[in-house]
Amino acid sequence: MVRALRSKLAFACGFALTSWCAGTLAATPAPVEPNFELSSTTFEDGGMLPVRAAFKANDPQFPGCFGQNVSPQLSWAHPRPGVKSYVITMHEIEGGPTHTDLVVYGIPSNVTSFAEGELSNPSPKFVGGKAYRSNGTWHGMCPPENVGTSTHHFQFRIRGTDLDPKDLPPGLTAEELDTRLKDHTKGQAFLVARFKRPR
Which helix (H) or strand (E) holds 128? Predict the structure, then answer.
């Protein structure tokens, strides 16, 4: 009788231990890889861009502007495996993709940020495309006076690619770049900035 009681206790303990282990395993979530992300120290996602980011004042080709054409700082992290280069574009949402005022690509995979002003001029760190108002480098916003001081939204987009940094020729428009990147994109991330003409 004692032997039978011991067997029942051992069975009950074993069952309880097994159930506890199964519950613990079920409650432990699988590790999640961090998402590809884009950030800036110049503005928060959905925040206002400073006036210095607007296109420079006293430019004869674009009269009526009021900024310094300083591109914002951008950083990115957690790219997908296999990324060899990056592409960054920026367009005004109200104007649609046609109003793309930053088109740079061929950014090597070991580059993970650009300082303020670094995208305002050509650099060996990227290949310049063809933007709406410039040769692809940063062209800051300059809403004309006739639109008043309404808020405009600007979308920054970074894409990882499996292309070598030198695979694409300079001077591509945003539309041509989209065509070239078909089946070569490995993740993307976005940031939206707001801007309004100062009074």
Answer: strand 127-128
Q: Over the chain, what is the mean pLDDT?
A: 86
Q: Using CA atoms, how far apart are residues 91 and 109, in angstroms rounded to an integer? A: 23
Put the strands of the sheet holding 37-39 in their side by side order: 37-39, 74-77, 113-114
User: pLDDT, tens digit, for every residue of 24-37?
Assistant: 444 556 556 679 99
With a threshold of 0.85, does the pTM exceed it? no
Residue among 90, 98, 71, 83 nearest 158 (CA): 90
Domain encompassing residue 189: 37-196
Look up residue 191 and give its amino acid: L
Choice among 117-126, 131-140, 147-156 with the minimum mean pLDDT: 147-156
Q: Tell me the torsion sign for CA atoms 134, 137, 143, 144.
A: negative
Domain-embedded: residue 150: yes
Quote the CA–CA distance of 98 and 120 in Å, as a whole number.
20
Question: Is 153 contained in some domain?
Answer: yes
CATH of the domain at 73: 3.90.280.10
Copy the structure tokens of residue 31.
């590790």
Dihedral Cα 61, 62, 65, 67, nearest 10 deg: -60
* 12 within a domain of the structure (yes/no): no
